[in-house]
């Protein structure tokens, strides 16, 4: 699939998803997931004007509890 096709697929998912859940991109390290999000998906969603993108990286974490602790610290610093 091309970036444009991924963008259309994700936008359609967001428009029609009834669960309002998250999307997780899975691919090996170095495949360009972050690059795609920053340089293709976010600009595409911003152009549509009614969607927001939040990126959460779990890189380097051994347990989800570590992410929760980092989130709590961030919220304390930046409420």
Describe this structure in words.
The protein is mostly helical. 56% of the residues lie in helices and 0% in strands. The protein is built from three helices and no strands. The chain has helices at 3-16, 33-48, 64-77. Helix 1 (3-16) crosses helix 2. The longest helix is centred in the middle third of the chain and has 16 residues, at 33-48. The radius of gyration is 15 Å and the shape is globular.
List keywords for this structure.
single chain, globular, 3 helices, disordered C terminus, 79 residues
Poorly predicted runs are 75-79
Q: So how many helices?
A: 3
Overall structural class, as computed from helix and strand content, comes to mainly alpha
Fraction of residues in helices? 55-70%
The span between the termini is: 39 Å
- What letter string, H or E per element, gives the SSE order? HHH
Main sheet overview: none
Query: Rg from C-alpha positions?
Result: 15 Å
How many β strands by DSSP?
A: 0
Relative strand content: under 5%
Brief overview, please?
The protein is mostly helical and 79 residues long.
Topology summary:
Blueprint: H1 3-16, H2 33-48, H3 64-77
Helix pairs in contact: 1-2
